[in-house]
Amino acid sequence: MIGKLTGRLDSVHEGGCILDVNGVGYLVAASSRAVAALPADARGTLWIETVVREDAITLYGFADAAERDWFRLLTGIQGVGPKVALGLLSAMSPGDLAAAILAGDRGSLTRAPGVGPKLAVRLLSELREKVGGMPTGDASFVVPAAPVPERGAAADAVSALLNLGWRRPEAASVVARVMDRLGEGADLNTLIRESLKEMAPR
């Protein structure tokens, strides 16, 4: 199996590129971010995921190991094939994906081609427990998390969401967004109701 290719960018096509490695042109399906990261006049490297099927051997290329690992994770979700996974990785960096999933941000996910509201909800549901251990490709990246309120209606709202099975980072993030929208005077029942509306599948 091929794990990495280093060579010169020969040409770019829709959905990937041809990488010239010592005179051999490898056809690689790749995210637009990975292709854009290749130098135009020097040797560059793509991390490769080799997929073997009965009728084809396909090389998928990535800018770094983090992007490749996210591809593997995404294609393990029902309804996410290689094309949709590459679309997500073209639209968002691994760090952006991690932040969107932790924040429950369906809107960011649906900007990727092939990702509708139902699939975005599935991604958020199935990945929120796994995202913490995923690489982001940026050593300085810290997944943004809303501060957890210590007292008052906001703290009680977060506690209520935790009792309903939501994870603390996601619950705190949603309650913080609702507080920003409604103001500090929002009562507990309103906070819980509006937070559940934001977190409900659409």
What is shown here, in short?
The protein is an alpha+beta fold and 202 residues long. It contains nine helices and five strands, in the order βββαββαααααααα.
Helix-strand layout with pairing:
Elements: E1 4-13, E2 16-21, E3 24-30, H1 32-37, E4 44-52, E5 57-62, H2 65-74, H3 82-91, H4 94-103, H5 106-110, H6 117-127, H7 152-163, H8 168-182, H9 188-199
Parallel strand pairs: 3-5
Antiparallel strand pairs: 1-2, 1-4, 2-3, 4-5
Helix pairs in contact: 2-3, 7-8, 7-9, 8-9
Provide the structure class: alpha+beta
Are there runs of 5+ residues with pLDDT below 50, and where? 138-146
Read across the widest sheet, the strand sequence of neighbours is 1-2-3-5-4
Describe the biggest sheet? 5 strands, mixed, barrel
Write the H/E string, N to C: EEEHEEHHHHHHHH
Fraction of residues in H or I helices: 40-55%
Number of strands: 5
Taking the alpha carbons of the first and last residues, their distance comes to 41 Å
Strand content: 15-25%
The count of helical stretches stands at 9
Description:
The chain has 202 residues and is of the alpha+beta class. Helix content is 45%, strand content 19%. It contains 9 helices and 5 strands, in the order E-E-E-H-E-E-H-H-H-H-H-H-H-H. It has helices at 32-37, 65-74, 82-91, 94-103, 106-110, 117-127, 152-163, 168-182, 188-199; strands at 4-13, 16-21, 24-30, 44-52, 57-62. A 5-stranded mixed beta barrel has the order 1-2-3-5-4. Helix 7 (152-163) crosses helix 9 (188-199). The protein is elongated and about 70 Å long. It starts with a strand and ends with a helix.
